């Protein structure tokens, strides 16, 4: 599986919802499309799923450009609707047949997917009696009925209570082994917990993207945690003015220095500490949290 999108844009009347978005997804990973409300996540996913025609740009799925790729991908919309009077199994058999599988094949796939998403015991129960988490898990099974190599899930956990969220996140964690997942979320901790890669969107544009390990590495050297035996406001002011340092804020254990230049910042902090004879207890390059990275990237 390889999905490459290049300079994808979508304009609705006057609103440019998605602007020149480019990224590539490789097989076997879970990617989070992360961004606040209105960032353009749903619009991007709807274009990728073939539900919306891009204003410009290309979608290349395994070398196919400009083709209908719906049979190769699975999609769970942000607000899925089910026939509440159907049982979970009836629903999956129905969507299997809609996806052009034979009835026999649909029944076989439905049973194995119900097992996979943990709904076997409730498969004959009406969907209207399912919990929110069960409905989302059924929605994920629906997206996988035709064995796509990529599934796209639009805000799969946002509307769920903590139990439902946990069920769906655990399922996604397990599914990562079987299929490539692209899911949208505005919840940073969900992206951090289960994704391998991140595409950060804001106001229609991609501001940052990469594997989480690469992003942590890139932003890790931009923060130094310090703790001193005694702390004074004067220390904060002195450190803030040093070369290579952008901002210093108090932290739970001491001070956090956000830096522009790691080498310069390290030298100037250590030189100042010796000069002032401060008692340094801790000096460490720290990983930025995803939230700090997000704020940094969107410039706030
Ligand atoms: N059909 C439409 N007609 C007009 N404007 C639209 C349409 N769909 C989306 N938009 C606008 O495009 C922008 C991006 O919306 P989109 O739903 O893609 O964002 P999102 O990141 O998915 O946010 P949310 O989490 O709130 O769904 C918003 O300003 C939205 O109002």
UniProtKB/TrEMBL annotation:
It comes from the Bacteria. Signal peptide: none annotated. Pfam families: ABC_tran, DrrA1-3_C. InterPro entries: AAA+_ATPase (IPR003593), ABC_transporter-like_ATP-bd (IPR003439), ABC_transporter-like_CS (IPR017871), DrrA1/2-like_C (IPR025302), P-loop_NTPase (IPR027417). CDD domains: ABC_DR_subfamily_A. Residues 3-228 form the ABC transporter domain. Keywords: ATP-binding, Nucleotide-binding, Transport. One of its GO terms (molecular function) is ATP hydrolysis activity. Belongs to the ABC transporter superfamily. This is ABC-2 type transport system ATP-binding protein. It comes from Amphibacillus marinus. The lineage of its organism: Bacteria, Bacillati, Bacillota, Bacilli, Bacillales.
